[in-house]
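Example record

One chain of 258 residues, shown exactly as stored in the release files.
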Amino acid sequence: MTTSVFFGCTFIAFGPAIALFVFTIARDPLRVIFLIAGAFFWLVSLLLSSLVWFIAVQISNKENASQQKGLLIFGVVLSVLLQETFRFGYYKLLKKANEGLLALSQEDAMPISIRQLAYVSGLGFGFMSGAFSVANILADSFGPGTVGIHGDSQHYFISSAFMTMAIILLHMFWGVVFFDACEKKRWWSVALVVLSHLLVSCLSFLNPQYEGSLIPAYVIMFLMGSWAFLSAGGSLRNLKLCLTCKDKDFLLANHRPR
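Predicted C-alpha cells for this chain:
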C-alpha cells in the first residue's frame, strides 16, 4: 500500500468529521471540552466490553470455532449496549453540568443548548470509535503482505475507510436523536437508535462482501441523518435558507441555546 493510498483512506474516513470539528466546534472551548469528554465516555465503554469479552474467551473452549464465533457476536452486542448505556449516562451528566453552568452564569439562557451538546458529544463518540475502527487497519496497511494476493477483495482498505466515515457520522446522528428522545421521553426512539446501532455493527459480519455491509450502512446513515435533522428542528424551508446562506441563525456556530 502506497503512502498516497494511506493518506487517501485517512482523509475519506476522517475528512468530514474533521471539517465539522474545525468549523463548528474548534472555536468554542466549551464545546471542545464536551467533545473530549464524550470521546472518553466511549473509550470507557469499549474498555469494559473488551474486558468482559476477554474474560469470556479465556474461560471458553478456544478449540471450538462455533463457540468462538458466538463469543464474537456476544462481544459486538455487548459493546453496542454499553456504548448506548454510556451515551445515556453522559446525557444525564451533561444535564446536570448545564444546570450548574446556568447557575454560575449571569445570563438567563443556557451557555450551550441540549441540541448542541447532543451534536458535540455524538461527534466525540464518533471520533473515538473511528480511531479504533481504522487505526490498526491503516497501521497494517504498510505490510508485510499484499491485500488480495489469495484472491480476496482488493478494496479492503477503501471499504474500511468508507465504513469508518459512516460510523463516525452515524454516532453524531445517533447522539442528536438519542438526546432529543430523552428530552421528550420518547423511549421508542431510544430503542430505535440502539437497534440501528446493533444492525450497523452486525453488518461487519457480512465482510468481505463489502457491498452487503456498505450499502445498508449508508442507507441507515441517510435515514438517521434525516431524522437527526428533523429532531434538531430542521425543515425543508430552513434547509433551503441555510444552503443559500440566508438564515445564519440556523447554523450551529450561531445557534441560540434553548
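Notes: The CA atoms of residues 94 and 152 lie 46 Å apart.
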